[in-house]
């Protein structure tokens, strides 16, 4: 199994936007409560924010964090989550059948973002919410003073406006599982009016319109074109989501091929945007906000029904259903295989950074997440944390286009390179970072990246980090947190640095490098 990739300094995909490495946290299960906010505990600060979580999130150096949903937002009244905590009412939360205590709200989130050094990206409720309430939320967050909502923010202890720049016009509004779900035409009208009003409050905000996410829905992409017809001039991004799941008839190799499915999905959305732009004779570019992406194996969700209602495919998700406060739901436990798959998805994002400007790993803490916490103040980095941390750390700079030749594999997504790669040139650091996934599960691969057009001596290989292991099902647990962790491999050459051009690098079987 050999793989050769040629990269040329002048042939680039594009610069990586800082927001390409972002995340998402929703009022869902133990994501906010117990994950971010756990007041009165020795491991939390005086505001109730968990210190250990703050530190890990800070270290990830993320661009934005999307909040408060997700499906949650389509039932959410942000006004329930502001003001004195003792006066906040408990509400029925319909997306995940839980009780929402409203002890954490928009002010808490914006403050937490400041502490962890990220920008908030806030979704407004365009399901059960009104366009007026959406505009009022912008006023509450961004207007200086002298109006009812801005003065209320000040009264609530926050003199300075938050200047929230990124706003999502609802969440997955194409789905029948969404409270207040709308047809494309109805959503387009409502979102356009919300966009108008939100921009009247603050003309500097950037807007993300809901595109479609799931190929099995009949609306897939037709929706995007209808919606963009109304909203192209108002928005900067189209939102789309991608989750991959290993069902029982998907082999490990097929699951690893998910990167290709995401690649196709991004390109489908790209084409819908391009078509809309051309038809409308627009000149500005609208980018993709992949504001949810991850492996999600639906470990504790029951798919209740997959039925055909009035010619529309619909399904319901049920979770706890017990009306509990922050129940421990959707707490995925990730394996080495999941981590390799997440790495592969990261490669697709990198190789499409010309159109993907925001991408949020969904989610951040405890719910389908790289980080989990327990009540004793322990924090666990799951397997998927590691490829994501590699991407956030090393995936900075300009992505180079790669030309591949070498071994291929037959997968559910067709014949694909067994080694898939992306290269990032960081001119400031004088480094090229190569990310590579070897999906050959039984044999190492001989990987030969070649770099052209760079002045000076041939690049030296200075570091090779790898995530691999003998058991694809292995997981990290609170008892054994280091079962799946990255290791550094020795690099060839007398001085510990081998010339990349001089020979191939060996990538272990089933490995993220
Ligand atoms: O991230 C979990 C859920 O997945 C989100 O609430 C929703 O937007 C998506 O379907």
UniProtKB/TrEMBL annotation:
It is an enzyme of class 3 (hydrolase). Signal peptide: none annotated. Gene3D superfamilies: Glycosidases, Golgi alpha-mannosidase II. Its EC number is 3.2.1.55. The keyword Hydrolase applies. The keyword Hydrolase applies. InterPro entries: Alpha-L-AF_C, ASD1_cat, GH, Glyco_hydro_b. Pfam families: Alpha-L-AF_C, ASD1_dom. GO terms for biological process: L-arabinose metabolic process; polysaccharide catabolic process. SUPFAM superfamilies: (Trans)glycosidases, Glycosyl hydrolase domain. Belongs to the glycosyl hydrolase 51 family. Residues 291-511 form the Alpha-L-arabinofuranosidase C-terminal domain. The lineage of its organism: Bacteria, Bacillati, Actinomycetota, Actinomycetes, Bifidobacteriales. Keywords: Carbohydrate metabolism, Glycosidase, Hydrolase. It catalyses: Hydrolysis of terminal non-reducing alpha-L-arabinofuranoside residues in alpha-L-arabinosides. GO terms for molecular function: alpha-L-arabinofuranosidase activity. This is non-reducing end alpha-L-arabinofuranosidase. Homohexamer; trimer of dimers.
């Amino acid at each position: 199994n050999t793989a050769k990739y040629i990269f040329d300094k002048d042939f680039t995909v594009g610069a990586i936007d800082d927001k390409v490495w972002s995340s998402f946290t929703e009022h869902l299960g133990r994501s906010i409560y117990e994950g971010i906010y756990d007041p009165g505990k020795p491991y939390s600060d005086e505001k109730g924010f968990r210190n250990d979580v703050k530190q890990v999130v800070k270290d990830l150096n993320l661009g934005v964090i999307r909040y408060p949903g997700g499906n949650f937002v389509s039932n959410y009244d942000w006004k329930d989550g502001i003001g004195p905590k003792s006066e906040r009412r408990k509400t029925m939360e319909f997306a995940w059948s839980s009780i929402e205590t409203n002890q954490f709200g928009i002010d808490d989130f914006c403050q937490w973002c400041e502490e962890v050094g990220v920008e908030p990206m806030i979704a407004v409720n365009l399901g059960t919410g009104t366009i007026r309430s959406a505009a009022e939320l912008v006023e509450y967050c961004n207007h200086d003073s002298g109006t009812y909502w801005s003065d209320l923010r000040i009264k609530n202890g926050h003199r300075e406006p938050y200047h929230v720049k990124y706003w999502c016009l609802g969440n997955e509004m194409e789905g029948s599982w969404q409270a207040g779900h709308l047809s494309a035409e109805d959503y387009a009208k409502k979102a356009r009016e919300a966009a108008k009003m939100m921009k009247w409050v603050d003309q500097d905000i950037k807007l993300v319109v809901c595109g479609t996410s799931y190929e099995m829905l009949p609306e897939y992409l037709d929706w995007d074109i209808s919606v963009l017809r109304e909203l192209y001039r108002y928005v900067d991004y189209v939102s789309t989501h991608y989750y991959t799941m290993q069902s029982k008839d998907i082999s490990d190799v097929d699951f690893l091929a998910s990167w290709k499915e995401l690649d196709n999905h991004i390109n489908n959305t790209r084409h819908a945007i391009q078509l809309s732009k051309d038809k409308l004779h627009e000149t500005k570019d609208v980018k993709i906000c992949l504001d949810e992406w991850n492996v999600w194996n639906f470990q504790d969700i029951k798919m209740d029904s997959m039925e055909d209602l009035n010619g529309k495919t619909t399904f319901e998700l049920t979770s706890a259903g017990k009306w509990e406060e922050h129940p421990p739901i959707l707490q995925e436990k990730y394996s080495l295989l999941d981590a390799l798959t997440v790495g592969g998805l990261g490669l697709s994002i990198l190789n499409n950074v010309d159109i993907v400007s925001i991408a949020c790993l969904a989610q951040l803490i405890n719910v389908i997440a790289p980080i989990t916490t327990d009540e004793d103040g322990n924090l666990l980095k799951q397997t998927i944390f590691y490829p994501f941390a590699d991407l956030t750390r090393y995936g900075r700079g300009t992505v180079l286009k790669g030309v591949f030749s070498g071994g291929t594999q037959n997968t559910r997504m067709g014949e694909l390179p067994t080694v898939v790669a992306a290269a990032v040139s960081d001119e400031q650091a004088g480094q090229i970072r190569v990310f590579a996934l070897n999906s050959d599960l039984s044999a190492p691969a001989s990987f030969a990246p070649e770099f052209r057009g760079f002045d000076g001596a041939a690049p030296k290989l200075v570091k090779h980090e790898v995530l691999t292991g003998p058991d694809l099902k292995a997981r990290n647990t609170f008892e054994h947190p280091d079962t799946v962790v990255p290791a550094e491999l020795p690099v060839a050459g007398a001085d510990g640095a081998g010339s990349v051009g001089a020979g191939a690098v060996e990538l272990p079987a089933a490995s993220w490098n």
